Amino acid sequence: MVNHGSTELPSDLAANFHYPLWLEIDRLLLSNNTSLWPHFLQNHSLIAAAVFRLENECEFLNQLIKYNFSVELIGYSDWLNAVNACNKFWIDLLDGSDAQDMARLYIKGRIEAILQVAPSLSTVMAWIEYQRWDDLSESVLEVALAKSQDAYNLVDQLWQGEDSLLQTKLLRTHSSVEVWPSSKLFTKALNAFYKKSPQNIQRILDQSNSDQRRVLFWPLIHDYKCAVVNLPVLCGFWSMSSVPMAWWSHHPERQRFIKELLSFDPIWFQVAYNQGCKIALALDAHCEFNRE
């Protein structure tokens, strides 16, 4: 039973879908009871697990929106762990020759629900489907092509030329807009990401500062458009890395600003986030996968 005077939950709850406690959590989260929400909103692995474990995932995702939580701030590793736990749960439960196929259908249904709410996660989910079932989506093929040629071609698509994604998906769309969401959050987030990153990612970020041919982000960091332009790319890159995204939950204003960016231009956020994911994959800055 959940202790209503406390938000304490078992430390391995996200990894174990067999806990009977999930049934009570299902009831509490989707009622007007708010006792568990503060704990969930600080625990990305639990949120990812809940999307795949709770009975009504769409209602849960809508509740997250109500609490100003963006699922784009959940890292690939948390999503992957949730999928692995879900897969194990259904195979254990069904215990038949078609258990794998049934688990796969269930997981794909949940992924579709996630992408209805957050299309920015299409590359994250495509990579999970590729790693688990060898599904070859367009984004996976784009990463493979970039790796076979030059991974920085994906960066050039963002910034270089009149037909760049920046020009066609953002700047021209808002050419007459004078007031943009503005914040110094990009610099703070990039510094936080760098400090927590392993050496291979730090080298990539160092090259981005020192070599014009290896610049990952839009270089006009003092421009008032910087946060809108760069933060979705950084969030996508970060999400595919091994660096936990918990930093975003430490202060509510960080999550609020991401919601503001999503409201300002959801198409640009989606495009830039996905491109950041692909860049991380092409540069081998992503989490390693262990098939379970």
Features:
292 residues; 2 domains; 61% helix; mainly alpha; globular
Secondary-structure map with pairings?
Elements (H helix, E strand, L loop, with lengths): L20 H9 L7 H5 L2 H10 L3 H10 L9 H19 L4 H19 L4 H12 L4 H11 L4 H7 L5 H7 L13 H12 L2 H12 L15 H15 L11 H13 L1 H17 L10
Helix pairs in contact: 3-4, 3-5, 4-6, 5-6, 8-15, 10-15, 11-13, 13-15, 14-15
Description:
- With 292 residues, this protein is mainly α.
- It folds into two domains: 13-117, no CATH class; 138-282, no CATH class.
- It has 15 helices and no strands.
- It is globular.
Structure in a nutshell:
With 292 residues, the protein is an all-alpha fold.
Low-confidence parts: none
Please count the helical segments. 15
Number of separate structural domains: 2
Report helical residue fraction. 55-70%
Distance between the termini: 30 Å
Instruction: Give the DSSP E fraction (strand runs of 2 or more residues).
Output: under 5%
N to C succession of SSEs: HHHHHHHHHHHHHHH
User: Largest sheet, if any?
Assistant: none
Structural class computed from helices and strand pairing? mainly alpha
- DSSP summary, beta strand count: 0
Rg value: 19 Å
User: What's the shape?
Assistant: globular
Mean pLDDT: 91
